[in-house]
Structures are given as structure tokens and as C-alpha cells.
Amino acid sequence: MSTLVAAGAPIGNVVVLGVSGFIGDYLGWEYIFYVYSGVTGFWFILFQVFVYNSPSEHPGITDDELKLITGSAEKITTNTDPKPSPPVPWRRILTSLPVWAIVFAHFGQNWGNYTLLTNLPTYMRNILNFELSANGVFSALPHLALWIFSVSSGYASDYLRHHKYLSTTNCRKLFNTVGNLIPAIALITVGYVGCNWVAAVALLTVSVGFSGLTQSSYQVNSLDLSLAFASTIFSFSNTIANVPGIISPYSVGLITAGPDGQSVLNWQIIFYLSGGIRIFTMIVYGIFASGEVAPWNYAGDLEVVNK
């Protein structure tokens, strides 16, 4: 279920990248912002109308859907006094190696994602010499592969765990390793195909596509460690992991600056940097990650933590 929800992001990238080139060619680049601003406003209206605080409060939910999401078909009325939220054991979280393994994996994945998401059209225009409309279509292909691998990874991961072929810990590590090692190798190889656009697009599609396997590793790992504090762990991880959204495009700009900046050699450096970060963070996750429930997840331990 988590991978299905998260799969909305790559599909959004497919639509935006695939359509933006045509909007820019036929209407002008400024209309790209007008169109997507309008779509965002429409989404906001739908969100306000259809989203509720909890599944049990939604008027259109069926008992089967409620049981699938919450594990129980019993509807809880809004008059029920909510249980107080347990205090967050920040010291235990911040000193937990499995939590930091998630942070490292998230950081490395986002570095690779932001590098390609923000700079792939630039690479295709300056190195592969694609026109704007074709650029958009070919930039969208890797994200379509990402969507396919993301959804597939959820089913594959559940199958391996439910049939006890792999423990949760080993399953998370396996999907993170494959979802980073193959993309890193493919991305570094892109730097050596020069202006061969068929090979470049194929390798970029492999790189971005296989990274979708990480949807079944660090992306859901916080739920393994602690249902009580999964949102806190993911928020902490996501805060740090979005730093590459600032640093990665800036580093690409520095490397490709100047009249001779847009060269195959400079893009090799960019791809090596991105691939190297992914491999390093993959190793950290492989050593320290865990799929077992953390002891500080339980309320009994919280009393000890906060004494």
C-alpha cells in the first residue's frame, strides 16, 4: 500500500516532463507554470473535499476498506476521547544506528534523484542535442520506469517476507542494495557513451527505474522500527534528505559553469559524484539497517526513557 501511494510522485514527473516540452513549444515557456499552478489549485480543492482526519471518519469508506487500512472494521466516533500522544524519545531516536541508516539511504537516494530530476533536461539538450519537446518525452521515460519498479517492489517485498524467504531486515537491505548499486553503475556508464542518445536514454532509464526498488527499503523502514514514531522518524530523515535538493543542482552548476562547462568530461564528474554518494550510503544502510521493532517503540520503555 505504501508503494502504491508513493508511486504518485513518479507518475507526476512523467506527466510534467512529458507534457511540459509541448506546452513550451506551442504556447511558450511561461504557460508551463500557468498550467501546473492551475492543476495544483484544482488538487487543493479535491484534497479539502475528500480527505478526512482518519479512515473511520470518511463517510464513503466500506468495512472491507477500513479493515484493510486499520486492521479493524470498527468505526470510531469522533466523540471518543483521543489517547494522549506518547512523548517522543528523541535521545533514543537520535542515537539509534538503524534510524541513521535510514537517513543515509534517504540522503543518497535523493541526491541521485534530484541530480537527474533537475538536470536531466539540461544534459539531454546540451550533450544529446534534443529539442525541447523530444527532451520532455525522453526525460519522462526514466520516471515511467521508476513508477513500474516502485509498484512492483511492494508486491515482491511482501511476497518474500510473507513466505519467509527473507526476514524483514534482509529484505530491506536487499532492495536498497539492488536499488542503488545498479542505478549507480548505469549512471556512471552514461558518462562514457558520449552523444549516443539511444545508449544514454537506455542507461538513464535503467538507473532511475531500478532506484524504485528503494520504495521497499528505507522508504518504509521507519514503520518497521516504530509504528508509534514512524512519522517522526521519516520527517527527521526527510528533512536531512532534502538538503541534496539544494546542494546537488548547485554542484552541477559549479561543475558545468563557463563557456566549456557543458562537456562530456564534466558530466562524467557529475555522474561519478552521484553514483559514489549512492554507493557510500548504500553500504552504510547495508551495515546498520534493521527491520526489527525498536525497544523504544513500546509505551513501557517510554516511561524509562523519560525518567
Task: Summarize the entry for a quick read.
With 307 residues, this protein is an all-alpha fold.
Describe this structure in words.
This protein has 307 residues and is mostly helical. Helix content is 72%, strand content 0%. The chain has helices spanning 2-6, 8-26, 30-50, 63-70, 90-94, 97-126, 132-162, 168-190, 197-210, 218-225, 230-241, 244-255, 264-288, 299-305.
Keywords, please?
307 residues, 72% helix, mainly alpha, disordered C terminus
Largest sheet: none
Low-confidence segments, given as residue ranges, are 300-307
* Overall 3D form: globular
Broad structural category = mainly alpha
Helix and strand sequence: HHHHHHHHHHHHHH
Give the DSSP E fraction (strand runs of 2 or more residues): under 5%
How many DSSP E strands? 0
Q: Could you tell me how far the N terminus lies from the C terminus, measured between alpha carbons in angstroms? A: 37 Å
Radius of gyration: 22 Å
Question: Helix coverage percent of residues?
Answer: over 70%
Total of DSSP H or I helical runs spanning 4+ residues: 14
Average pLDDT, rounded to a whole number, is 85
Helix-strand blueprint:
Layout: H1 2-6, H2 8-26, H3 30-50, H4 63-70, H5 90-94, H6 97-126, H7 132-162, H8 168-190, H9 197-210, H10 218-225, H11 230-241, H12 244-255, H13 264-288, H14 299-305
